[in-house]
């Protein structure tokens, strides 16, 4: 790690043309074994992880130019033999800070080094293998943009008087 994406104070507001990011998927792979405090792959709690991702999203929103795009690749996981929708939780945090969802591109993801281990476990414990990831593409709206046409692709209240 060479920096902390939760603090991009060295970058000006509205200065970046395109952002492509690939965060840890909670603590599925731990990148620093707890040795780097800023490494968010040490976080095993979904809400706590998402709180940190929201800080990243807020900074990305600040530095991105208006009407430009921010893409994030993120996958899901399992706990207690049940599906954990990490990707949708992360997506919501990006909407919370003001992005609008432009695309949800599915990346087929299988035949990885860990697939064999998961396949055995899935057969034994009766669950489906997760074989995709999401490439969410968000857009930062223009200042004062009329968002009524995209109201179902965002989370921020547009105008309290506008019926949703
Ligand atoms: C899924 S990997 C992405 C790897 C990337 N695609 C690559 O090829 O280098 C997630 C990366 O996020 C880094 N990371 C963890 N916490 C971070 C933070 N607070 N700020 C920036 N990067 C962080 C990890 O060290 C890891 O390298």
Architecture overview:
- The protein is an alpha+beta fold.
- It has one domain (16-141): Rossmann fold.
- Helix content is 24%, strand content 24%.
- It is built from three helices and six strands; from the N terminus they run βαβββαβαβ.
- Strands 1-2-6-5 form a four-stranded mixed β-sheet. The chain has a two-stranded antiparallel ribbon with strand order 3-4.
- Strand 1 (16-21), helix 1 (46-63) and strand 2 (64-74) form a beta-alpha-beta unit.
- The longest helix has 18 residues, at 46-63.
- The N and C termini lie far apart (42 Å).
- The structure holds S-adenosylmethionine (SAM).
- S-adenosylmethionine binds at residues 1, 4-6, 22-24, 31, 38-41.
Secondary structure: elements and pairs:
Blueprint: E1 16-21, H1 46-63, E2 64-74, E3 77-79, E4 82-84, H2 86-96, E5 100-108, H3 115-125, E6 132-139
Parallel strand pairs: 1-2
Antiparallel strand pairs: 2-6, 3-4, 5-6
Helix pairs in contact: 1-2
S-adenosylmethionine is lined by residues 1, 4-6, 22-24, 31, 38-41.
